[in-house]
Amino acid sequence: MLTIDAFPILLAISAAMFTIGAAGVLVRRNPLVVFMCIELMLNAVNLALISFGRFLNSQDGQIFAFMVIVVAAAEVVVGLALITQVFRARHDLDVDELSEMSE
Amino acid sequence: MLLATQNLQFPPTRDLIGLLPELILSGAFVILLMLDLVTPPSRRSLLAAVSLVALAAAMGAVVWGWFDADHARTIYAGSFAYDRFGRFVDGIVIASAALTVAISPDYLNRRGLHFGEYYALILAATVGMMLLAGAASLIVIFLGIELLSISLYILSGFAHTETRSQEAALKYLLLGGFASGILLYGMALIYGATGHTQLTLIKQSLAGSSGTDPLFLVGVGLLFVGFAFKVSAAPFHWWTPDVYQGAPTSVTTFMSVATKVAAFASLIRVFTYTFADSTDKWTGIVAFVAIISMVVGNVAALTQTSLKRMLAYSGIAQAGYILIGVAVSPDPLGTVGSLYYLAAYAATNLGAFAVITVLAGRGEDLDSYDGIRGLAYRRPYTAAAMAFFLFSLGGFPPTAGFFAKFLVFSAAIHAHAVYLALWGIGTSVISIFYYLRVGLLMYTRPKEGEETYPWARTSLAGGGVLAASAAGTLVLGILVFLIYTAAVSAQHGVLPVPQQLA
């Protein structure tokens, strides 16, 4: 049973997950890991949405979280396909190396 | 029990009619995917024809909706706005999609990329943009953005044998996903602060508060960053030049125009109209991003030697000008100016990219400045059209670009934000240099025996698209009142809660 005290903790966890994810996107170089960090950000959003929904006693948050899950799955399908394609072409995975187009 | 059955019933007809254009295109999307299976590769232009028919039908539904949506209302329990503002933007998006589809078959055939999924994906992205333009709930905004983004990720990587195209798609995907995450977190915080996802209800719950809830303000900030990514405003623009350059040119044509138009429509609906009561909290940031975009876009464009990158940076600068209309909220003249600018930008930029698409030869995309040297001596009409589009981008009368800038700057002056108008005029002067540089290259006579880029022959469809864009640019520049009246009318009915034009 969720008590009112758990709410700030859940929000703090969500914020921490989001920050870790965002930092990972900016720091990590492997597109697969970057992609995982984006998923972490989306899951932080889900946690925040569901906590808010429970706290506010409204269903919108849960519905929103379902939508995020579905869309994230669609994004993964496209993302993994693209990463595979790039790896096949280059046999190398590093976002810093993706610089055929320069300033 | 009675309540339960009422909640579960099928959406009423009037709600379905409100989504008619989207439904037509979604149906066409499925039909195209199946037609692709039975169409022989040599006859894939047929799929383009089917897409054009569907887009024409959707356009008809939008025009009908424009008159029907005289009294704006929300449908689907307040999650979609059926108003003239949405129809106005839908019209621009569908026209851009149709012109893109018209130039695509020739270009894709020359590049060896002619696959049926292309048209289905263009239609899917169009549906996403139209959903985004009409979205009146945070959930639908998110769905619209993702539908258009995921379709465009695939389209950017459509040249599956070229590393550049793959690189562009991956960059777009990673940075687009990052931006979506930020946008979503902003939405979650706004939901937490207001307790609602429907814009109408959010606006209501904000009306009673002072708008200083830190949760809400952080949410608004994150939401704006997410939108700024999608409209490619500086300093969130890094992906734009690489993606525009790497993607097949016909895809760039579409996404540079339609994505920006749809994302701006949603930005205006959310910020100018939903957060109308707390404008003093966020207009400063919008004005700052507008100035940064104008400066970064125009200065970076000066040093480019690639046509697509130059137009990408020019697009970043144009995003800055359009943002002026948002930064002067709640002045309704700002919205009118932004809407007019979006229409003008769509006609002009689509034309400029269409020229590059139509001329692209069999090998590499036409991209470097050298590639258009002497164009005027071989293809005088195409060169004249390109020069006309460049004049419009630079803001010379009597083109669309002139009145677009004029309306946006006058809105800034009307709202006592003269500094924004001054920044805009100052950076416009810079922009003239790089637009003229390209224009002059086209009119430079090639030296004796010098090889020019093997420009493709302009087909009937290609010529028609260039003529249509040029006509649009000219009409928006001369018959100003035609679109101005429409923009004012669109502004009047915008949901949530219309504002009166003084």
Task: Describe the structure in your own words.
The complex is a heterodimer of chains A (103) and B (502). Chain A has 103 residues and is an all-alpha fold. Chain A has helices spanning 6-27, 31-56, 60-90. Chain A has one domain (6-95): Helix Hairpins, CATH 1.10.287. In chain A, 77% of the residues lie in helices and 0% in strands. The longest helix of chain A is centred in the last third of the chain and has 31 residues, at 60-90. The mean pLDDT of chain A is 87. With 502 residues, chain B is an all-alpha fold. In chain B, helix 11 packs across helix 14. The termini of chain B are far apart. Chains A and B meet through helix 1, helix 2 and helix 3 of A and helix 7, helix 8 and helix 11 of B.
Describe how the helices and strands are arranged.
The complex is a heterodimer of chains A (103) and B (502).
Chain A: H1 6-27, H2 31-56, H3 60-90
Helix pairs in contact in A: 1-2, 2-3
Chain B: H1 2-8, H2 13-18, H3 20-38, H4 45-68, E1 73-75, E2 80-82, H5 84-111, H6 117-134, H7 138-156, H8 163-194, H9 199-208, H10 214-230, H11 239-246, H12 249-274, H13 279-302, H14 307-327, H15 332-359, H16 375-378, H17 380-394, H18 400-414, H19 418-442, H20 460-478, H21 480-492
Antiparallel strand pairs in B: 1-2
Helix pairs in contact in B: 3-4, 3-6, 4-5, 5-6, 5-12, 5-15, 5-20, 5-21, 6-7, 6-12, 7-8, 7-12, 8-10, 8-11, 10-13, 11-12, 11-14, 12-14, 12-15, 13-14, 13-19, 14-15, 14-18, 14-19, 15-17, 15-18, 15-20, 15-21, 17-19, 17-20, 18-19, 18-20, 20-21
